Amino acid sequence: MATIEDLAQAVFDGNTSKSKKLSQELIDDGMAPLDVINQGLVAGMTEVGAQFKAGTMFVPDMMAAAEAMTAGTDVVKPLLAGDDMQSLGTVFICTVKGDLHDIGKNLVVMMLESAGFDVINAGVDISPEDIVAGVKEHHPDIIGMSALLTTTMLHMKDTIELLKEEGLRDQVKVIIGGAPVSQDFADEISADGYSPDAVSAADLAKSLVGAA
Ligand code: B1M
Residue 66 — very low, low, confident or very high, per pLDDT cuts 50/70/90? Predict the structure, then answer.
């Protein structure tokens, strides 16, 4: 029988087909979708990060692990998305300029959608100018920015400054997240909120539109 530890190991090993298969088996065995994500897929990826930092794992292995994780989340995603709910509002979300990390951001997208938001997922490496253009085009209630690099998180500040310059800051709430980001940083750049994980990001978004 598949175990959650096997799934974490499959992600760590970058074994895409096994990650997909085990995610499905754990769901079929009755495990809650969020537990499959957090205790299996995210746990495996956390170990990848630790080993990369220690210099015992390298970029190609990280990429393989990322693919394995995505294959697992693809299995779980349909079980999370809410269908017939009335929309709570629109969130325009992206990973900031210079940053290609999208696994965490995509988990946030899944949680926002399952909470009842319409989500415009603009992708990765999105400049402040393109975020502002997205606000003008889509009129979202909330902008969500994700960053995984200490260098790229500074573009969150640039984006908020540009929103102010364009006279748009009062029309949209801004939430941020990602491993190097903190509540202190959110306060420093005058974001409307920070959350450390995908579930609390959806709760934060709900509170900002008065739906919590
Ligand atoms: Co990169 N990488 N990476 N990487 N990578 C990190 C981030 C790093 C911490 C690894 C390490 O040194 N331990 C390090 C950053 C160091 C730093 O800046 N302090 C690093 C580095 C250095 C790099 C490169 C520079 C490596 C190189 O090329 N030499 C390079 C940069 C590329 C670029 O972006 N320009 C790079 C490349 C990559 C891959 C492409 C190989 C791959 C990404 C694949 C992909 O995303 N499609 C990758 C990966 C996989 C990682 C680690 C191992 C895992 C990230 C991840 O997916 N975590 C990561 C180490 C780590 O974080 N442990 C690392 C799982 C995910 C579920 O968590 O993204 O934190 P996370 O998201 C969470 C929360 O943060 C939060 O909710 C999510 C779910 O709970 N959250 C939000 C995220 N966004 C949010 C937004 C919100 C709210 C909450 O509101 C809007």
Answer: confident
How far is it, in rounded angstroms, from Cα 206 to Cα 193?
A: 11
Top mutation candidate among 74, 99, 148, 197 for ligand 1, by most atoms within 8 Å of CB:
148
Is the distance from the beta carbon of residue 102 to the nearest atom of ligand 1 less than 6 Å?
yes
- Cα of 103 vs centre of ligand 1, distance in Å, is 8
Q: Which of 10, 107, 149, 145 is nearest to 67 (CA)?
A: 10
Q: Is the CB of 154 under 6 A from ligand 1?
A: no
Hunting for tokens 């995610």 — which residue is that? 23
Is the sign of the CA dihedral 99, 104, 107, 113 positive or negative?
A: negative
Amino acid letter, residue 48: V
Domains of the chain with CATH codes: 4-79 (1.10.1240.10), 90-208 (3.40.50.280)
Please write the tens of the pLDDT for every residue from 105-142: 998 998 888 788 999 999 999 999 999 999 999 999 99
Report the pLDDT value the prediction gives residue 46, as an integer from 0 to 100: 87
Q: What's at 78, amino acid-wise?
A: P
Verify whether ligand 1 is closer than 6 Å to residue 46 (CB atom).
Answer: yes
pTM equals 0.89
53 lines ligand 1 (CB under 6 A): yes
